[in-house]
Amino acid sequence: GRGTRFVFLLPASQGEARAIVPAAGKMPGGSGRILVMDDEEAIRTLVVEMLDQLGYEAETVADGEAAVTRYREAFEAGRPFAAVILDLTVPGRMGGREAGERILALDPNARIVISSGYNQEPVLAAYEKYGFAAALSKPFLAEEMAAVLASVFGRGTQD
Questions:
Q1: I need a surface site. Which of 96, 107, 109, 145 has the fewest CB within 10 A?
Q2: What is the pLDDT of residues 47-91, one digit of tens each?
Q3: Backbone angles phi, psi at 61, to 5 degrees
């Protein structure tokens, strides 16, 4: 009941800005390591904070090639990630679609969430067709990420 609450408003959309404020007791938490790939450092930092609030441990990389390498290292060491969140579009480098294909070739049981601010992308609408477990449209709230991860791990959300 005590502490400080920070609200960050990011200009990631031309629509109305939404505050990222977790509703206490409304988000399903979890545990496990999650690999986050996004080319924007600010997004990586924000997602790590959200995951930390939800009880997850996060590692980040900036592009698809690094995501595949880091996933392979963890998988071969016997410490696979519980899930991976991949940014679909990484200008000039490997994006989430190709990285997801390579990770699934290595580990067909990988749980991959594809994410993008380009919400008209066919991959987001038909993510299962590409082997992804879920999709997250940017910008997203902590509650939305919590719900997606709960569905990926087969847990329902709290009401």
A1: 109
A2: 999 999 999 999 999 999 999 999 999 999 999 999 999 999 999
A3: -140, 160
pTM score of the predicted model: 0.80
Q: What is the DSSP string of the chain?
A: --S----------SS------PPTTTS----SEEEEE-S-HHHHHHHHHHHHHHT-EEEEESSHHHHHHHHHHHHHTT---SEEEEES--TTS--HHHHHHHHHHH-TT--EEEEES-TT-HHHHTGGGGT-SEEEESS--HHHHHHHHHHHTT-PPP-
- Strands 83-87 and 57-61 come out as unpaired
The identity of residue 35, as a single letter, is: L
